[in-house]
Amino acid sequence: MRGVEQIPWLYDLGMVFLEATGLGPWRRWLTSDVAPGRLLDVGCGTGRNLALLPAAPRAVGLEPCAESLRQARRRAPGALLVQGRAEALPFRDGTFATVTSGLVFCSVRDVPAGLAELRRVLRPGGRVRMLEHVRSVHRWQAWLQDRLQPAWTCVTGGCHPNRETERAVEEAGFRIDAASRRAAGSMRRFVALPPEGETT
User: Fold this and answer.
1) How many of the other CB atoms lie within 10 Å of CB of 89?
2) Rounded average pLDDT over 89-113
């Protein structure tokens, strides 16, 4: 379904406002401290994360919306851009040292499949850096998110404000690095590590 997420100029306008009112430092954290080697930005949208990375051919952006990819090309001309979905990543096993995901898994259609794909393409010793908004821990706010979700998902073109993304990440077998985790309201940022047996 087409919504705000698939209209690049409107999406960027909203992001400019959100980044000016607090999201900016969280996005900069997402793109900092990345491991040497290839990096995949899942759901790269209009390239706002990619533009913060050092210019290098090792960055790959994946996005289902062709219009957003065209904007990402202007914003991050050095990145390799690929049209595709998180649930079916067109990359070989163990390709990436770092995977970044910024405000993406609220909109992934099949979250367990998408997270399984992240594990598959992550190299041994790799890590996933995630920035997501999640279901509120406050009962009344979660209730409100549940009531708003159908209309919100329609307007935005796929976003679910009430997903328990942290729990889904752990259920997919990742370990959340407690030292990296920050929470503010419904916003979360953290590094997700694959199981011990999958690291070096």
Assistant:
1) 23
2) 96
